[in-house]
Amino acid sequence: MSRRYFASPFIVWIAAGTVIPLIMIAYYGFTDRSGAFTIENVVSIMGAEHAQALWLALLLALISTAICFVLAFPLALILKDSRLGTKGFMIFIFVLPMWMNFLLRTMAWQVILERGGIINGILTGLGLPALDIINTPAAIVLGMVYDFLPFMVLPIYNTVMKIDNSLIEAAYDLGATKGKVLRSIILPLSVPGIASGITMVFVPALTTFVISNMLGGGKINLIGNIIEQEFTTSSNWNLGSGLSLVMMIFIVLSMALLSRLDKNGEASLI
Amino acid sequence: MKKFLKGLYIAIILLFLYLPIGVLMVLSFNESKSMSIWTGFSTRWYEEMFSNEMILDAVWNTFTIAICAAAASTVIGVLACLGISRMRSRSQKVIMAFNNIPLLNADIVTGISLMMTFLVFGISLSWGTVLLSHITFCIPYVILSVMPKIKQLSPNMYEAALDLGATPAYAFRKVILPDLMPGITSGFLLAFTMSVDDFVVTHFTRGAGINTISTLIYSQVKVGIRPTLFALSTVIFVIVLVVLVISNVVQNRKGARN
After folding, report:
1. pLDDT tens digits, residue range A207-265?
2. For the domain with range B52-230, which CATH number is right: 1.10.3720.10, 1.20.1270.20, 1.20.1250.20, 1.10.1060.10?
3. Residues of chain A neighbouring B237 (CB-CB closer than 8 A)
4. Is A11 within 8 Å of chain B by CB?
């Protein structure tokens, strides 16, 4: 028996667990309840409610990805320079929260931002007016940044650590300023890590329904919330699949864009 | 001054990352249900947690599913790597592209597509469907960890073992398996953590009344947060911390020895 056949269980599994399910989405997305072909489910993204949910999801995902990058890039550079403990230990501290259940991490912010929560407890204690942060888009962005920051830090850190220090020293020796070194040496060489960090934050942020549900109080709908509701409460698989197809277009687009930056795939997490 | 600013930046980010976890830990020992006022030390939420059938059930489900999913996906994944490496490079590329789909796809799409597939084929959602779904998204991680090790194998060693009279099974155990072991272990551990951490796929593919830690938290948070969840998160955090610190120390020791 050829060793090639060892792969058969895996191929069967891919067919049943990946290919058929994707065909299901395509099938339901392009049919109506009676099974007749229609593009109505996909086109319904243009409807006011759905378009707004998609737009808000894109906007919040972009904002949180940008914030994660702005926080993570200087951090990676500082960690590269510093001699704080052993190399592995510092980065370990920064990605440790990633290993804790992300629902618990999101719940923590719910507790902190809650009307009767700690922030407002401190504010009223100081005689200041209470803030209504919970159930706003700002709370959702905060939750996204908190949950996904380690996914930005890790790939950027990995590529920044690979940059040869002698390149940087050579640039200084040749009279480059700090800004010039950053722009012409460090930034271009960290592009693969930045690209994979952006994918790892943007895609989960764009498609989340958990963070928006927990920190948005169920009143702010992102595209993920709409899709989830179609499958749980309204049981309209056709509409849910149609909207998922539209969402997948955005995922594929962003990945295609970013994979051109990370051509060798060298910055992958594993 | 500059050094101070850098240190301050690191401190602020650490504070941002750990303050919320710290808040949950402190509140888990708070006597009252209040989320902002400290009324006294108590371990009643821990007692409540350990006597709460639903929580214990969810913990049990989480770990049995994770162990089964990690074991099954490791077996399927390692066999797949052995098989794929014998294929033509074009078929290899096609298969690896399919392997990457669950990794790149959004969880919610994986979840709803599996849920529809189960129901269309008349499989009612249960503990088993969660396990099958977890195996599906765990296999790619195993393959990504084991494949590089397979590529590093030297074919001569295996053939030399056969020439010296080893049976194929014996040669596999003594020659190939030891070289693959680091990849297999990390694949298994990765699959295990992915399964424990998963919420979205479980949310869509679980049967009524089946809860993992994640789905239990989600349903409880909707009705109103109770401090038992703070106790649970403290316990989880401490376990994660201990496990990761130990594995880090072990790895560093190994690195130092080599």
Report:
1. 999 999 999 988 899 999 999 999 999 889 999 999 999 999 999 999 888 888 766 55
2. 1.10.3720.10
3. 100
4. yes
